[in-house]
Every structure is written in structure tokens, then in C-alpha cells.
Design brief:
Layout lengths: L2 E6 L3 E4 H4 L8 E9 L17 H13 L2 E5 H6 L9 E4 L10 H4 L6 E4 L5 H10 L1 E4 L7 H10 L4 E4 L3 H9 L5 E7 L22 E9 L2 E8 L3
Parallel strand pairs: 3-8, 3-9, 4-5, 4-8, 5-6, 6-7
Antiparallel strand pairs: 1-2, 1-10, 9-11, 10-11
The chain binds NADP nicotinamide-adenine-dinucleotide phosphate (NAP).
């Protein structure tokens, strides 16, 4: 059992599993991201691990335990060296520039899903099909709303998006993001690090509502409900 200190809406110790429980029915798309006090989504090495910490990693683990599938962009899977997990991982990639011999594909207990589009290179698509469940969602690019619907259609109700910023922006823009779990890490990173959403500004900034705020020493764990446009 993992405990954190609740600051809002209650005060006192809370079980992390309970605090992050998904709604008992229906489908949910939740994102889990970390950023520093100055808004950096990664440290000087370009990775999120350098702005993360022990408590953040514990929450990250619990969020996975509670979810049915991890949804991640190929950029993050490549940069962070994603490995097989106790739940299926769905990788979004248009170019299919994936190391299909890596354990994420070749040795996953739960077969990895590759979500791609019709314009993906045909030869790589065939090789991907040999080691992963391939979903083709969209023509020139992956249509993320279609991708989310395809995951739900497979019975994967609780989708945990672990980024990265390119994918997260699209989920937000497509109106399919229900929740953002944001770790506010007590660092100032400086430099030109990206933010947790990348790409063009959203037409209208998405409104959110704070549903809880937890703490572990200097670390804050906020959970926001996203207003559907
Ligand atoms: N702070 C945090 O919580 C956090 C979380 C995750 C990642 N990160 C950091 O973010 C960095 C990676 O950022 P990123 O924005 O490049 O990563 P990303 O969103 O994980 O990946 C971008 C890639 O995903 C694929 N993709 C995304 N949307 C697509 C679409 N609609 N159609 C087709 N392909 C699509 C493309 O892959 P192909 O090129 O294969 O087509 C694209 O290059 C890493 O350095 C990582 O450390 C930070």
C-alpha cells in the first residue's frame, strides 16, 4: 500500500490506489506526465527521468497497475527505451521506425499494439504484424480519436497515456482526453526543454478542474478532469 498526503479535497494520508481509482464504469483516457516548476517536461538529457523522482515513479507504477493499456507515442517509446510491462503497451507511429527486435515487441508477455496509419511503409507494416497487434487508424496520420475508440473496442476501458508531448497535444485537441495526472517536480530546469504538450497551440485552451492534490515532501501530484470541448 502506498500512502501520500492529501492537500485537497481532503487532508491527511490517502492510499494512492484509492486516490487514482478509475470510474467504475465507462471508458476513460488518462494522461500521466511530469513537469518541473518552470514547466520543463524533461531535463538537460532530453528525458523525463531526470526531472522525476522516487515518489513520482511509485505513482507511475500504481497508475499502470490500475490501467488496461498504456498508450505512448513512438518518440517516447524510442527515447525512454520502453520495455514490456504487466499490461499491454500501444505505440503510436506513422513511420514505423521501430526496433521490432527489441523486447517491447519480441518478448512482450502482453502483445504490444502498434497503432499506425494507411501511409505506413507496407514492408515494415508486415514485419510489425509478425510481432505486434497492428491497428490502422487514419490515412496520412494516425487519427487519435479513432485509435482510442479502437482500444476501447478491444475492451481496454482505462487507457493511460504516458505521452509524449506530441501525442498528448493531439489527444487534447481531439477532445478525447478525460484526465491529466500531473506530477509537479520540485526542480527548475531552465534551457529550452519542451512542455507537456507540443506542437501548435490549441484553438481554445482546454479548461480543467482540479480533482485532487497530493504531496510527498516537495513533490506534488495533481489530478485534473478535462472539460470536453
Ligand atoms: N514529462 C513527461 O511526463 C514526458 C512524458 C513522455 C515523454 N516525455 C519526453 O518527451 C520526449 C518525446 O517527445 P515527442 O513529442 O517526440 O514524443 P511522442 O509524442 O511520444 O512521439 C512522437 C512520435 O509519435 C508518433 N506519432 C504521434 N502522433 C502521431 C500521429 N497522429 N500519426 C502518426 N504518428 C504519430 C510519431 O512517430 P513516428 O516518427 O514513428 O511516425 C512521432 O514522431 C522524450 O524526450 C521524453 O522523454 C516527457
Amino acid at each position: 500500500m502506498q500512502l501520500l498526503t492529501s492537500l485537497y479535497p481532503t487532508t491527511g494520508d490517502v492510499e494512492v490506489e484509492e486516490a487514482y481509482a478509475y470510474p467504475p464504469a465507462g471508458n476513460t483516457v488518462r494522461a500521466n506526465m511530469v513537469c518541473t516548476l518552470d514547466g520543463a517536461a524533461s531535463g538537460g538529457d532530453g528525458l523525463s527521468g531526470s526531472v522525476s523522482g522516487a515518489a513520482d515513479k511509485r505513482v507511475f507504477g500504481v497508475l499502470r497497475q490500475l490501467s488496461d493499456v498504456v498508450l505512448v507515442g513512438a518518440g517516447t517509446a524510442r527515447a525512454e527505451g520502453y520495455r514490456p510491462a504487466k499490461l499491454p503497451i500501444a505505440v503510436v507511429s506513422g513511420r514505423l521506425d521501430l526496433d521490432l527486435t527489441a523486447p517491447l515487441y519480441a518478448a512482450a508477455e502482453h502483445r504490444t499494439l502498434v497503432i499506425t496509419c494507411a501511409s505506413a511503409p507496407a514492408d515494415t507494416l508486415e514485419r510489425a504484424r509478425a510481432v505486434a497487434d497492428v491497428l490502422v487508424c487514419g490515412d496520412a496520420r494516425v487519427d487519435v480519436a479513432e485509435a482510442v475508440a479502437a482500444l476501447h473496442a478491444r475492451g481496454l476501458r482505462n487507457v493511460l497515456c504516458e505521452g509524449g508531448p506530441t501525442l498528448l497535444r493531439q489527444l487534447a485537441a481531439a477532445g478525447v482526453l478525460d484526465e491529466l495526472c500531473l506530477t509537479i517536480s520540485p526542480f527548475l530546469a531552465g534551457g529550452g526543454a519542451g512542455r507537456i504538450l507540443a506542437g501548435d497551440p490549441l484553438d481554445v485552451p482546454l479548461a480543467t478542474r482540479l480533482t485532487h492534490l497530493l504531496a510527498d515532501d516537495d513533490w506534488l501530484f495533481a489530478r485534473y478532469a478535462i472539460g470536453r470541448p
